[in-house]
From TrEMBL:
Protein name: dTDP-glucose 4,6-dehydratase
NAD-dependent epimerase/dehydratase domain location: 4-233
EC number: 4.2.1.46
Enzyme class: lyase
Organism from which the protein derives: Pelagimonas varians
Gene3D superfamilies listed in its UniProt record: NAD(P)-binding Rossmann-like Domain
Length: 337
């Protein structure tokens, strides 16, 4: 059993990952800033659920708070660090760019320093499919260039990939960075489309549909996603390649034990099919407010999941309609509606 330090445990993905690892008997220390970017009660409830397991402890502090993060990491002495906390959200970054630099750049640096001090077996950090930015070759592969971020959010995440690479190279620190693709499911984020659409429809409000519905997303069910992280954690620790020879299709660095891995469903769904799945799950029609494309948004995402499958023998597979149904069941139960 391992000692695993996870940032963002009161967040959507961090909660699910911690839950899975605790259920397997690992010891987890969670670290979360409990920011009010969205409803803090939801975050507190997630932490309260995790606290039911005695091998879970937590620190509530910001990533930029160097004394707090140093104290939490040094006190716990982790073998593995999974860094999921950060300022997420594509659209919020247009009005609040500084939050992204503080949490994602400075915060990630603080986590990397902790990983270096403790010589962790594996540092795993969250990036995003948003780093593919203006790329048009689909599906997106990790070996594609990703140099055209369209928001400061994507730019800060791309920066953390570069930062992670440098420490992996300098300190021989095995590092995996995930590029997540529109993760959804129970306990999901209230700023994301699924939560917003379900809430608005149940409250009799219209939903805002961007780009008149002409959008595509590779929606990834959260249980599949955390399973993929779990498999990468112990069975796919990157090692510096011998003589710098990298296998075909692998994103492994020629000079560092470092790779980026897409975690996506590998299916690009039409936004309007997603809306219809929500209507079917609710048994209710939406009222649609068709809007123009939003600044910084990407029209389509689609993950090439071949590397994930090669490394783990697994690829996400939950059908979007089933996943939406499970979210709606959770939402109705949680909010008693
Ligand atoms: C919030 C909202 C979204 N949309 C559209 C935009 C997208 O085509 C689709 C899904 O939007 P979202 O659920 O916000 O997800 P998306 O824009 O892909 O961004 C998510 O996925 C990204 C990639 O994993 C993450 O880096 C972001 O943190 C996360 O928010 O729905 C609407 O049409 N109306 C809305 O109100």
């Amino acid at each position: 059993m391992a000692r695993i330090f996870i940032t963002g445990t009161a967040g959507f993905i961090g909660y699910h990952l911690a839950h899975l690892l605790l259920s397997e008997g690992h010891t987890v220390h969670g670290y979360d800033g409990m920011t009010d970017y969205y409803d803090v009660t939801l975050k507190q409830r997630r932490h309260a659920m995790l606290a039911q397991t005695p091998t879970f402890t937590a620190t509530e502090a910001m990533l930029e708070d160097r004394a707090a993060i140093d104290g939490a990491i040094d006190g716990f002495e982790p073998e593995i660090i999974v860094h999921l906390a950060g300022q997420a959200g594509v659209r919020y970054s247009l009005d609040n760019p500084r939050a992204y630099v503080d949490a994602n750049v400075v915060g990630t640096f603080n986590v990397m320093e902790g990983a270096r001090r403790h010589k962790v077996q594996h540092l795993m950090m969250a990036s995003t499919s948003s780093v593919y930015g203006a790329n048009t070759d689909m599906p997106f592969a990790e070996t594609d260039k990703a140099d055209t971020p369209m928001t400061i959010y994507a730019a800060t995440k791309k920066a953390t990939e570069a930062m992670g690479h440098s420490y992996a190279h300098l300190y021989d620190m095995p590092t995996t960075m995930f590029r997540f693709f529109t993760v959804y499911g129970p306990w999901g984020r209230p700023d994301m489309a699924l939560f917003k659409f379900v809430k608005a429809t149940l409250e009799g409000d219209p939903i805002d549909v961007y780009n008149h519905g002409e959008m595509f997303r590779d929606f990834t069910y959260v249980t599949d996603l955390v399973r993929a992280i779990r498999l990468l954690m112990f069975d796919a620790t990157p090692a510096r390649p011998e003589n710098g020879v990298v296998p075909e299709g692998d994103s492994l660095s020629p000079v560092a034990p470092f790779r980026v891995v897409n975690i996506g469903n590998s299916k690009s769904e039409r936004l309007m099919d997603f809306v219809e799945a929500i209507e079917d799950a609710l048994g209710q029609k939406t009222t649609r407010n068709m809007m123009d494309m939003q600044p910084g948004d990407v029209p389509a995402t689609w993950a090439n999941a071949a590397l994930l499958e090669t490394l783990t023998g697994y690829r996400p597979q939950t059908d979007m309609r089933d996943g939406v149904k499970r979210f709606v069941e959770w939402y109705r139960d949680y909010y008693r509606v």
